[in-house]
Design a protein that fits this description.
With 900 residues, the chain is an alpha+beta fold. It has 25 helices and 33 strands. β25 and β26 form a beta hairpin. α13 packs antiparallel against α14, α17 runs parallel beside α21 and α21 packs antiparallel against α22. The radius of gyration is 45 Å and the shape is elongated. One of its GO terms (molecular function) is phosphorelay sensor kinase activity. It is an enzyme of class 2 (transferase). Keywords: Coiled coil, Kinase, Phosphoprotein, Transferase, Two-component regulatory system. This is histidine kinase.
Length: 900
Amino acid sequence: MSDRISVLLVDDDPDLRAVTASFLEREDDRIAVETAPDADAGLDALAERDVECVVSDYEMPGLDGLDFLDAVRERRPDLPFILFTGRGSEAVASEAISAGVTDYLQKRGGTERYERLANRIVEAVEKCRAERDAEQAVEQFRAVAEGASDAIVSIDTEGVIRFANPAVESVFGYEPAELEGEHLATLMPERYREEHRKAVERYLDTGERGIDWSNVRFEALHRDGSKIPVSVSYGEFTVDGERQFVGVVRDDADRDRHRAFIEHTSDVVAVLSSDWRFRYLSPSCERVTGYAPSELLGERSLDYIHPEDREAVEAAFGELDGDLPSAEYRFRTADGEYRWLESVGSERIDTDGIEGYVVTTRDVSARKERERTLSRLREWTRELNYTRTTEEAAELAVEAIDDLIDAGLSGIHLRTEDGDRLEPAALGQSVPALFETQPSYDRDAPPGTRAALAWNAFRGEESVVIDELSTYERIDESSPAESLVLRPIGDHGLFVVSSPEPRKFTDTDILVAEILSGHLEAALDRIERESRVERLHGATRTLVRAESRAEIAERAVEAATDVLGFSIVTVRVHDEAAGGLVPSAVSPEAEALLPERETFTPDGGSLNWAAFESGEPRMYDDIRTADALDADTALRSLLIVPIGEYGTIAIGETEPGVFGGVDEYLAGILATAAETAFQAEARTRRLAERTADLERQNDRLEEFAGVVSHDLRNPLEVARGRTELAREECDSEHLAAVEHAHGRMTALIDDLLTLAREGDPVTDAEPVDLGQVVGSCWRTVDTRDATLRAEAERMIVADESRLRQLLENLMRNSVEHGGDGVTVTVGSLPDGFYVADDGPGIEPDRREEVFDAGYSTSQSGTGFGLRIVEQVADAHGWSVRAVESEAGGARFEITGVESA
């Protein structure tokens, strides 16, 4: 076998498909990936090419990953299938494992997930190859041993028999199971045992055989104590490091018995010449084909084979010199009909005047008929999987049973909602003609009636088979049916398969009815589950609209009672202040039945707390056996499902053993919806609290802005006026310093007002010509002897006034810190723009600090200019960072900008 591993990758995302394929082939050069965009294309690829492993996404258009798995399993049951999905719910993982997926991996994570996926692929394929090789080896050995006419036994170095084929019984009188585990001395007369023991020890010590292993003749011991002449050929092999010996034993006195066996065997033993003519036929030929052996001797065997099968037979047998060739074909019998036969070729013989090749043939018509029936059964059960209503599933099952085993009196009888009757949901086409009224069965019908028989079968677990109903001692009511098979359909009802003929149904018919009823039960479970899930989804939509925890709990109880049909329901919410699970909503029946308990605490021994703490659902068929707190009440069945970190939903009934997997599944959906609602309520509450905090903060900022703009600016203007008046009266060098201080205070007040008022998100952005705004800003800034290089020519979406504030502050920063003759460049980025200069730049370890409020390296700077730049960028949803320009100066890059 080639070391190449052919992998089919099915994913509807073309980019992810290409990336995954590339990584897999890079991780292991043995892996060769072929891709398909969906399940249908994947099935086409499987039909056309030899694939050793399938890797499939879960959520895809058309068939999803699990439907694709079902389709693959129908074609290649043992093909490794890995579900590689971005959807990481436990429900999907559980359903995937139940469906028989080889492995299940999630897509999230880094590139290491591809390494894990590649390893899983190689492990799965190598395991499959090893199992296939081992199975082939074992099957080949067993096929040879099981079909051999000579006795074959293997022994270990202690002389213990480890294997014996069926032929040992004809040679020694023992069945294989009787010899396996016994010492080889069982088959040896006393006088040979010591000599044999020494010979084995000598061989194990020295490797010297002493005798020719190919043909050893001696007397063996038969089970009846008689001695039989045998010839044995030996061989040696190793299994898991253990040395073993195999011996092929032929009974030298068995030729007459072998001839007698051939004469009386039910299989036809024939000898064919090289030109396909019969040279010998055993007496069983007449029973199988209708021809006496003498009628076929000399005839060409191919002439009796169906024309459509001759080519296959010729290809299988060729010249009849291969290794155990075999073929199935239709043979024309003496009455002109065709019967299915199976022939297996053996070795060439030349004895007693008979020369040719031995072929053993058996009648396989019954098996072929069973195979055809089971094939049609698979088609019917596949259709059952697609039914959408109870009525549709029942009608299809009745139609199927009539087609498969000719049972026109059959019917599906489902239990009514009150549980008192089995009513017909679908009846066979012959029922109206033979029954005056549609058969239905009351639960309390007296013994001896058909209804009592039906309810007894419904309450059981196995099929009830009656060959002749008229002589059945447990019923004294007449019925048109004679042959009867009654099969319970889980909790749904009863499958009645019947015929007016006695002893109508074979073991195969009964098996077909049981398989079909099992698939019908699964279909009815699915239909019921889907119906309840659909209703549940409608009810749980109201959960997320609830405005409080109490309302969420109330609506969860309503969904559990009104939609799912549970009666005793309690929703408990975890309360840290109370130290446990506090009841938040209770159904009326739970309130009437159960005693009031405020809180279930960690040390209270509550089953609710145990489920909440474990995070896993807990289901109890009878709480009286579980040491529960409510064991002394009428409550018996209990199902507890955690609501994440928020609490639990407890569902109970007064009868034991009520809940099943469907109930747990639906309760889990309700709990998930409730958890989502609790999470939404918590987010809403946190958002409201944050909004209130922001409003209070905005109020404080407005108050601050008012103080700055009025209470500080007015006294500052008075001081500036007084300074001018003082300059008229006297000329002091201190007045210049005062004026400079007044100017710095004015700049600080302007920047503080900008910080206080520029933090709100931008809501009125519109297309802006970045090049025009850059030129306008440069004209309003004191640029001294600086030079502008405007290279940004593009339209962006922004608040123009805030964009001007950002650009002016960056230009002013470059002029103030860039030195004499600095050049300021405004250029474009793929998703934004930048402002750069050729000044001294910013030290790398301080590039984050420059955006802090109050940070400045200039004597005239306020320290708020770059903080305002960052604030304006944040308000737009942009990002800003300081880096080194190409000329070694400072460069500020603004990214995340939307193009107009």
